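Example 3.2
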Amino acid sequence: MNRLYFAIVAATLLLAAPGLATGTALAGGGELVIVPGKSFGKITPATKPAGLAGLFGKKNVRTGMLQPPHGDFPEQNGAVVFEGTPKEFEVFFEDGGRRIQWVIAARENSAWRTDAGIHIGMDLAALEKVLGGPVAISSFGTDGGGTVLAGKHPALRDLIVRLSYPEDLPAEDGAKLEGGEPFQSSDPAARRANLKVSILWWDIRR
């Protein structure tokens, strides 16, 4: 009788909280969860570059000069963590390597996601669902092109979300998306371009 009772209770709890059963619960953060403004997995604003090996294991941290995912930025000192795996992310240093400046996930098959569920590869329709409707996007013809201009939204809280730029766009659509002015995610040209989230970028100084 007791065994049956506890089995029923356990099954009920798993059904009520499927995230606990799958290990993908997002609320409150986790190993592969970004809580914008607070943490990137185990990294918080208090984390120092010297502490990365202790957090993730020395063999999983490769330090060196890295290129930020922005063509106008020079290479700078940083670390790649869990390189070559879906858990991969990059950490960029400042102040002579004493402080963390940025933490970035940009791998195509990245397992990282925000506590609201935003992840690499997410399409515009799914992103709009999280953000409550269409959002402005910076022109791909400008520095930082493809950035979602909704940094103060509660689901982002200053997290930089950038979208991929597709190839072989019709000339008319390319002119719209590269025109130098922000455009709406609901614009037909954006819909046809099948834009997807490609970078999750936390500026830890904000």
